[in-house]
Backbone:
């Protein structure tokens, strides 16, 4: 009895599968143009984006470039253990976190402030001009930006001139030559480069706020500052939360261009972050395994942060990022 | 009606914004002034917004070198080809994943979006390029960055927003997907195409790291940004690099001296002027792209 119905069920299943396959093939034929449009690029994405992940195996080997995969020597977590007992790498980790946190806080506060203040400008022409000028540094490459920053901070640069003129310092300071200043310089450079651009999204959020709220507040006698605090800033709240969470997810991604380009022998203890460490060990010293271990560590932590941030965002009722 | 508080607030705001604009522009204007000032005179310092001893000498020196023309050519080629090819590929995939009936709509979308959150890292990517024989080739600038997930999502959102009736009536007329894509979707998507083309073009123009990684020993494939990077690194380490040392050598025997400082300023301007000239006219597209990308 039972076996009879089993057989019946399995034949039905088989028929269904055959039917499913037929339907699938018919659909493929129907949508062949769409398949032609995507399949080559799916292959591309696998080769260029997914295949390199296979290279993470290097982190568990003493990789030698000339030797085939099967003949590589496996060493387990040796490179990770080395990293976490290496004083230099622990310093690198500290720099990565400190640089990211400074950039995060400075970036948020300045972009939100700028958006609020731009929104308060009543002369449209002046408003547009300010916006256009504030975008400018965003479009420059980091190489150009680094050239500008190092020139401004040089011994005969404007920063030293102004501080000397105001009598705030007695002697010119070689700003990029003092490690302790590097995090601040990096944070300021990031603000200079991106504050205008980052303000765009907040300005878009402000433009969605109902104008009647402002009118009502005015009638109730709320001052300009009060209106900003009680209407404009709460109006941006959801955008701020989403962006904050997303940025926390990217906390280890402090970038490498300014650190690499502005870093030098004198500030290396404060400028070197994980990415720069990977470049130095991997590309300059050919220690592929150690560099890959450091890079892999960063990516894995980032993904964990990102998932945590995303579920936090969903819990707070702000909706996920994906 | 403006109250007294309004007046104080507005004045303070305008003053603050003016200072901000100076803060944004000064470093750039200062480099222009130095690049147009006599090199030996610049060493004395004190050049701010205006050249003291005006000269075109620095620019003449920079443009005399064959290496700079090579770098300009490579920069232009990768910008134009990268933007053109990247645009077409991104638009095609975006069109496919915007079709509600497409059987792999969801999986293809996820496969691309995942690339926003992880990557194999520097060394594995480098070794992949080596295995694909892309090192020492121009295509290493184009192929690895063909489609960015961010641009793909911007474009998909736009195409999904197009009125569905256009597609339906085209299909009734017997048009295939390729025909619809080229004849209907592309012409209707001009604003978003402009946005993405600009994102890619700016990225390509500003790149220096892939040159450093893959083509640093290929003199005929370096870019403007990379040449500027070498000058920048040389000025802090004073080791000799190709172009920088060439400048130094030519400078010593010449009556019209150039210095690392003036050459760096001049190269900075040369490397950024194309973008500075173009971006004010295109900013509305950028802004639209930013907000479009953020919505999703």
Residues:
């Amino acid at each position: 009895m039972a076996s009879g119905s089993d057989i019946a069920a399995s034949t039905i299943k088989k028929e269904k599968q055959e039917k499913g396959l037929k339907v699938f093939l018919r659909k493929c034929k129907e949508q062949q143009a769409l398949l032609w449009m995507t399949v080559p690029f799916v292959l591309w994405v696998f080769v260029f984006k997914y295949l390199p992940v296979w290279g993470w195996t290097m982190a568990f080997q003493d990789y030698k470039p000339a030797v085939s995969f099967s003949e590589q020597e496996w060493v387990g977590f040796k490179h990770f253990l080395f990293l976490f007992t290496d004083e230099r790498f622990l310093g690198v980790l500290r720099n990565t976190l400190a640089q990211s946190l400074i950039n995060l806080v400075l970036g948020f506060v300045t972009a939100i402030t700028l958006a609020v203040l731009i929104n308060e400008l009543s002369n449209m022409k002046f408003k547009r001009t300010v916006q256009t000028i504030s975008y400018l540094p965003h479009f420059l490459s980091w190489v150009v930006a680094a050239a500008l920053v190092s020139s401004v901070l040089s011994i005969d640069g404007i920063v030293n001139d102004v501080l000397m003129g105001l009598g705030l310092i007695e002697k010119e300071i070689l700003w990029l030559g003092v490690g302790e200043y590097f995090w601040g310089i990096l944070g300021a450079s990031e603000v200079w480069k991106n504050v205008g651009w980052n303000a765009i999204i907040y300005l878009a959020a402000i433009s969605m706020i109902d104008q009647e709220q402002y009118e009502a507040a005015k009638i109730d006698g709320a001052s300009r500052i009060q209106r900003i605090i009680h209407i404009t800033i709460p109006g941006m709240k959801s955008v701020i939360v989403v962006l904050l969470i997303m940025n926390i997810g990217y906390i280890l991604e402090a970038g490498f261009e300014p650190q690499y380009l502005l870093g030098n022998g004198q500030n290396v203890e404060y400028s070197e972050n994980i990415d720069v460490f990977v470049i130095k060990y991997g590309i300059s010293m050919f220690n592929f395994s150690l560099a890959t271990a450091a890079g892999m560590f960063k990516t894995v932590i980032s993904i964990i942060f990102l998932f945590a941030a995303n579920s936090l965002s969903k819990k707070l009722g702000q909706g996920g990022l994906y | 009606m403006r109250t007294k508080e309004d007046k104080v607030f507005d004045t303070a705001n305008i003053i603050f914004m003016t200072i901000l604009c100076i803060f944004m522009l000064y470093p750039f204007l200062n480099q222009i002034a130095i690049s147009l000032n006599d090199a030996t005179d610049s060493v004395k310092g004190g050049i701010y917004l205006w050249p003291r001893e005006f000269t075109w000498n620095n620019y003449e020196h920079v443009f005399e070198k064959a290496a700079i023309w090579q770098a300009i050519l490579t920069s232009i080629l990768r910008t134009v080809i990268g933007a053109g090819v990247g645009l077409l590929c991104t638009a095609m995939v975006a069109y496919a994943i915007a079709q509600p009936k497409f059987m792999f709509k969801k999986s293809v979308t996820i496969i691309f979006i995942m690339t926003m959150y992880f990557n194999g890292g520097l060394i594995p990517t480098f070794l992949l390029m080596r295995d694909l024989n892309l090192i020492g080739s121009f295509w290493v600038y184009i192929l690895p960055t063909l489609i960015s997930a961010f641009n793909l999502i911007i474009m998909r959102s736009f195409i999904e927003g197009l009125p569905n009736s256009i597609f339906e009536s085209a299909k009734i007329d017997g048009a295939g997907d390729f025909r619809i894509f080229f004849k209907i979707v592309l012409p209707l998507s001009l604003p978003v195409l402009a946005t993405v083309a600009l994102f890619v073009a700016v990225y390509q123009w500003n790149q220096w790291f892939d040159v450093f990684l893959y083509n640093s020993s290929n003199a005929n494939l370096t870019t403007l940004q990379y040449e500027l990077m070498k000058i920048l690194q040389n000025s802090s380490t004073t080791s000799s690099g190709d172009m920088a040392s060439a400048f130094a050598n030519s400078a010593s025997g010449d009556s019209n001296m150039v210095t690392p400082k003036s050459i760096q300023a001049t190269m900075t301007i040369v490397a950024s002027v194309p973008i500075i000239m173009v971006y004010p006219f295109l900013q509305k597209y950028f802004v639209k792209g930013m907000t479009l990308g953020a919505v999703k």
User: Anything to note?
Assistant: Chain A has two domains: 2-78, 87-315.
